[in-house]
Amino acid sequence: MSKGTKETKKNKPMTEDDKLKYEIASELGLLDKVKEGGWKSLTAKETGRIGGLMTKRKKEMKQQAQN
């Protein structure tokens, strides 16, 4: 992957999922690690935890919207 491709990705607007992912990473104390080494610097356990919490929150938000 070229440097230009990485810069393009950084300039893309954040989706709701991206915002949620960063929010959860911050709550877990992993945001500094992500900023330094990117998402690839996280362990499988850390990544799984973020994904699991994202799923849980999305489910909760969906239930609240239905009520």
Helix count, per DSSP? 4
Estimated structural class: mainly alpha
Q: How many strand elements?
A: 0
Our estimate of the beta-strand percent is under 5%
| Percent in helix | over 70%
Task: Report on this structure.
The protein is mainly α and about 70 residues long. The protein contains four helices and no strands. α2 crosses α4. It is globular, with a radius of gyration of 14 Å.
Outline:
By secondary structure, the protein is an all-alpha fold.
List the defining traits of the structure above.
mainly alpha; single chain; 76% helix; 67 residues
List the helices and strands and how they pair.
Layout: H1 3-11, H2 16-27, H3 31-37, H4 44-66
Helix pairs in contact: 2-4
